[in-house]
Design brief:
By secondary structure, the protein is mainly alpha-helical. The chain has 6 helices and no strands. Residues about 10-20 and about 25-45 have low confidence and may be disordered. InterPro entries: Sig_transdc_resp-reg_C-effctor, Tscrpt_reg_LuxR_C, WH-like_DNA-bd_sf.
């Protein structure tokens, strides 16, 4: 890509301009973990969902939530967990409703953030 007068701008100039533009634009509309997202007391990185909300989910819902960050579709999740695809959809609907989330993507991000709690939860369930 050519800059002014057909000369390629230096990478430093591009980075500087981008940083200046970002600073002028203010914080992003959606917090991104590790990029200016502010922790919420007792909750996650700007999601507004307290970790205590995990207690509102059934063990199976927590299990479905725990595999979301893998990026698999409903059919693959169903096979992995030995349940029907329709059941996965029902659990995802319930999870997003109970946690006040707007999408599966928000649920996957939250799941990645809460991975330690979800792993501990599964270990506890496996022991009983």
């Amino acid at each position: 890509m050519n800059g002014e007068h057909g000369v390629n701008p230096s990478p430093n100039r591009l980075v500087g301009t981008t940083a200046e533009q970002n600073a002028a634009a203010g914080p992003p509309a959606v917090p991104v973990p590790g990029r200016g997202a502010s922790p919420v007391p007792g909750g996650g990185l700007g999601t507004g969902v307290p970790r205590s909300a995990l207690r509102t989910l059934t063990p199976r819902e927590r299990e479905v939530l725990s595999v979301l960050p893998s990026g698999e579709g409903n059919v693959a999740i169903a096979r992995r967990l030995g349940i029907a695809e329709r059941t996965v959809k029902a659990h995802l609907t319930s999870i997003t409703r109970k946690l006040g989330l707007r999408s599966r993507v928000e649920a996957a991000l939250l799941s990645a953030e809460w991975a330690d709690e979800l792993r501990a939860d599964r270990a506890d369930a496996d022991r009983t």
